[in-house]
Structures are given as structure tokens and as C-alpha cells.
Design brief:
The protein is built from 6 helices and 10 strands, in the order E-E-H-E-H-E-H-E-H-E-H-E-E-H-E-E. It is of the alpha/beta class. It is globular and about 45 Å long. The relative contact order is 0.17. Bound molecules: 5-O-phosphono-beta-D-ribofuranosylamine (GRF).
Length: 220
Amino acid sequence: MSGEDSNSALSTQDPALTLRLAVLLSGRGSNFLSIHNAITSGTLKGEIVCVISNRPGVPGIVRARELGLPAHEIDHKAHPSRLDHESEVLRVLREAKPDYIVLAGYMRLLSSSFIDEWRHRIINIHPSLLPAFPGVDAQKQALDYGVKISGCTVHFVDENLDAGPILVQRSVEVRGDDTAETLSARILEQEHQAYVEALVKLAESRFRIEGRRVIFDAAR
Ligand code: GRF
């Protein structure tokens, strides 16, 4: 974003436009489906312009194809290096021209040049209230730590793991009889709503970033 310092950025999106979304996933794809449902029901003014999976045959990419969406299986194991795989992902993304790249259970780290090219246009969801419990098995980390409240976080992706500016958070109470599975299931329900909420905000409002804070103007 030329002409702006790194701690202050303005949305380049015209809030009146339909959001063009690229979804990257590696597995089940329930967040992807929740976003797709929000679009088809009219809750979210958007269009899924491509779905990319680094794992062939996973439920998320199978469903994307069944729904008639442009679905790309780009197997990381079929590429000689991480960067080689990523350049193929980038090729598809540049062709699809999304406004935002939505990571929905995408289990690959992105290079810093990838993140730089799409600064403040890559969004991720994480199943904890960040900055608590980044990384894998966040729900189990929360349970083992003994927190009474956990939840989920939708955030922009930056060079650090699960650390970019926060768009939306939702909390979930941790119960005495919770297991990692039961807590994960209740957090997942909130994830589906939080991701849609974040995308609706991006579709309907302008935002600016001051330091770490994402500030939305009132919806028009
Ligand atoms: C979700 O728990 C998300 O928070 C995490 O990966 C999981 C993906 O689930 N990043 P799904 O594939 O969207 O069902």
C-alpha cells in the first residue's frame, strides 16, 4: 500500500461492491460451506471465485466441485518445494482476482512475499481468543490451561503465526465436563457465524488499521 505507513492502512474496497472471495482449505471445509451458505441466502454480498485445496479429495474441495465452484486441487506433495507449490497457488489466485483470500482450515504456512502481495487481504480463523493459544490444537491448549472462556478469532494474516490484526472475536464458555471435542464443536458453531460476520463487515463498511486495531466505519 504505497503512500501509507505500515501501521496505518485504509481499505481499498468499495463497500458497495460484491466481495470476490478465494477460499483456501485443507480438509473438512465447514467454514467454507458456512460462507457459501451466507452468500446463497443473501446474508453476504459475495462471490466465491475459486476454492483451492492443497490436499486432493478432502471433503471441502469435493463439495466445492459439487456446488459448481471453480475448484482447484494443488497438491503440495506433487511440488518439489514449498515455494514451487505456492507459486502455483498464486497463479490461480492472480487469475481469479479475489478481493480477499479466506483461509478456512488451510494447513500451509504462507511465505512473506505472498503475505506482502496480499497485505490486509488474507483472512484467517483461529479457534481461540487470540493472542491466547496460537498454533495447533488451540481448543485442547485452552482446556489444558484451565481457562473458563475461550472462543474464536477472525484476523488478517501477517508474517507471524495467528497474530495479525483482529476483525471479529466470539467467546464460548468452557464447561467442567468439556473434552477437546465438545469444546471444539461449540467453538466451531461460533466460527461459522464469526467468519460470516467479518466478511459482511468487509463487504458493507470501510475500515482502517491503526497500529493493531481494525476500525470499521459505520455501515452505509
Ligand atoms: C477450524 O477450527 C478453524 O478455526 C481452523 O481449522 C478448522 C477448519 O475447520 N483454522 P473447517 O475445515 O472449516 O471445518
